């Protein structure tokens, strides 16, 4: 979109922290950020949220998610331009740690097929159980072209350490579908949690993990190593009352994690996953970055989602509206309307 547009409120940047001010958008980019204590402290303007693990993307815009990976077991077509690639959650998983993954969709490692997928499809993350035959070789192969992840695993500590040394840099929904903690063997959770090379995916929806487990993870690893992920599915509960995935994403996760600080919530929901994917222009409310923004009310509920400077969703206006159409209360004085 052409022209310059200014948006004001509480700017929540994961590096600089929250401060009142205004940002100027031009041609889909943030071109200037100005602190100004006179600007009202609402709305809250976060960088657009980045989700690494989504099966059902329909509701993402309503929760401020501006970039995501579509989860699948094999390459599929990307559904929209906000989808920046695929997260292959399998099929090279441990059937004893399948969780909600259907057993018929789990198979042995096939390095030739994996190499074709990495060559021909927009694969950004591949989850592998390192203990299955060929698992460590698969992780090494993935690490050459994408992000290798450990998940759906019953591996012992030595095998997980070998996987990290082979190039694994992400933990797919840490704690869930992983070998439980033991007194005399570390297993995947401890090794992934303690290794600073690994980003930890956390389904912080209040259902997949006890709040104290969330707290433990954040206190040990720090917000700088955690990526809030939704595992968003259309039907989150199976017939036998098991969780099949999540039904909360973006702002809904940030609302829960804001108890650790707004900067920390923005770090976990935006900057950490963006960095993992190498999206250097996402994840911040800073000059030179894409104007992907999640505009939230002071209660952290979504008001508007902006993608590359355009209003993609708004609680008050049709998606076709742009920043020119924002009411005065959400725009900075002198915004050039």
Major β-sheet profile: 8 strands, parallel
Query: Average pLDDT value?
Result: 92
Strand content: 25-35%
Please provide the count of β strands.
Answer: 15
Distance between the termini: 14 Å
> What is the percent of helical residues?
10-25%
Kindly provide the radius of gyration, computed on alpha-carbon positions and rounded to a whole number of angstroms.
20 Å
What is the structural class?
alpha/beta
What is the spatial order of strands in the main beta sheet? 5-6-7-8-9-10-11-12
- Residue windows where pLDDT falls under 50 for at least 5 positions: 318-337
* Apparent shape: globular
User: Topology as H/E string?
Assistant: EEEEEEEHEHEHEHEHEHHEEE
Number of helices: 7
Describe this structure in words.
- This protein has 7 helices and 15 strands.
- With 337 residues, it is α/β, with parallel strands linked by helices.
- An 8-stranded parallel sheet has the order 5-6-7-8-9-10-11-12. Strands 3-2-1-4-13-14-15 form a 7-stranded mixed sheet.
- Strand 1 and strand 2 form a beta hairpin.
- Helix 2 runs parallel beside helix 3.
- The longest helix has 15 residues.
- The C terminus is likely disordered.
What attributes characterize this protein structure?
337 residues; alpha/beta; seven-stranded mixed β-sheet; disordered C terminus; globular; 21% helix; single chain
Describe the structure concisely for a colleague:
With 337 residues, the chain is an alpha/beta fold. It is built from seven helices and 15 strands.
